[in-house]
Amino acid sequence: MTDGPEAGEGDGVDAGSTEGDGEPPEQTADAPDPDLPPDVAKYDRFKKIDGGTYDRANDFLRERTYVTAREWAIARLCADFRTETGVEMTKIGENLPQLVPFMTDTYSPQAVNQARASFEEKVRKAGATFLYGAMCDFFTAEELDDVMYEATEVAKFLLEVEGVELSVEEELAAEDEISEVMREVREHSAALRHDEVECPDCGHHFEATAADAVDDD
Predict the structure, then answer these.
(1) Residue 92 resides in a domain
(2) Does residue 198 form part of some domain?
(3) DSSP one-letter string for 48-101
(4) Is the overall model pTM greater than 0.85, yes or no?
(5) Predicted confidence band at 204 (pLDDT cuts at 50, 70, 90)?
(6) In total, how many domains does the chain have?
(7) Which residues span the domain enclosing 45?
C-alpha cells in the first residue's frame, strides 16, 4: 500500500469490488429497490453532489488530502452504520450505489473493510506527520495557524458536502478551540525540547521536568 496523493487508486479494494478509479462503470438508471433496508432508503448524506462523478470527487481529494474518494465515502459510511457489535460491512457494500451517488458498484464486505483500514492508516500517518511538524518548531506560530486554517477549511467543506450544516457561530467557535489547542501543543513541545525555555510568542517562562515528559507520554 502506498500513501499520498500519488497513491494508486486501487487502494483498499479486493476482487470483491469492480469499482475502478480511472474508468468507473456507468451508473444504470435502475428503479429504486423497494426492498432496501429502511436506514439505507432514508440515508441522505452526499446529496449535495448527487450526479457528480467519482473522478471529480477523487481529483478534489487527491489535491488536498491523502485519501481517495472511495476511502472518504466508506469511512463516512462506517461511522454512520456502526452498531454495538461493529460496522455493518455487508450492508454498506451491498447498498453502496444507493448510499453514495458517485459510487456505481457494490462491494464485498472484505473490500469495504480494506478501504476502511486504508483510510485509518493514512489518517494515523498524516496525524503523526502533522503533529511532528507542529512540535519540532519547524513552523512559526503564524505559519502553524495558516496550516490549521487550510486543513480546517478542507475538513469543513467535506462535512458540508456530506450534509452537515454548520452555522457561522459554530465554525468560529471550532476555529478558536483548534487554535487554542495548537498554541498549547507548541508551548508544551517547546518544554519537551528544552529544560528551560521562554515562549517566543508571549515571553512566558517555564521549566520542563522529567516527570512532565513521562506524564505527556
Answers:
(1) yes
(2) yes
(3) GGTT--HHHHHHHHHHH-SS-HHHHHHHHHHHHTEETTEE-HHHHHHTHHHH-T
(4) no
(5) low
(6) 2
(7) 38-123
